[in-house]
Specification:
single chain; 113 residues; mainly beta; 9-stranded antiparallel beta sheet; globular
Length: 113
């Protein structure tokens, strides 16, 4: 397999219908590798990644914005610069409580899509 270069600005925003006012740009998926998937995620003002679990690891890094993350069954203030690690089976989520959008970089291992 050859090296792939993508510019996230050229990728289409795709609505994530499982969550409220959440959109994704797929940087890499299982079509390109089976080890991980990576996404840029946008949560609109007032939007939410609703509480959920996975059978795989998810790590997300907040690049812009602020909100309340669900971690260890508690809501915790989070903001740009925070990294959230959701281990398999652990319920997690994120509500945008800020004045603007949240942008985050999310990685799943192994790939989830």
């Amino acid at each position: 397999m050859s090296t792939i270069i993508k510019n996230q600005e050229s990728l289409e925003w795709i609505r994530n219908s499982k969550h409220r006012d959440v959109f994704l740009r797929h940087l890499t998926t299982s079509k390109e590798n089976d080890r991980l998937s990576a996404h840029i995620v946008r949560i609109e003002k007032g939007g939410e990644i609703v509480p959920h679990t996975h059978e795989i690891l998810e790590v997300f890094y907040i690049m812009k914005g602020e909100g309340l993350a669900l971690a260890n069954r508690e809501r915790v203030k989070t903001a740009a610069g925070d990294c959230i690690i959701a281990h398999p089976g652990e319920e997690h989520g994120l509500i945008n409580t800020g004045e603007g959008e949240i942008l985050l970089y999310s990685v799943f291992s192994p790939a989830n899509c």
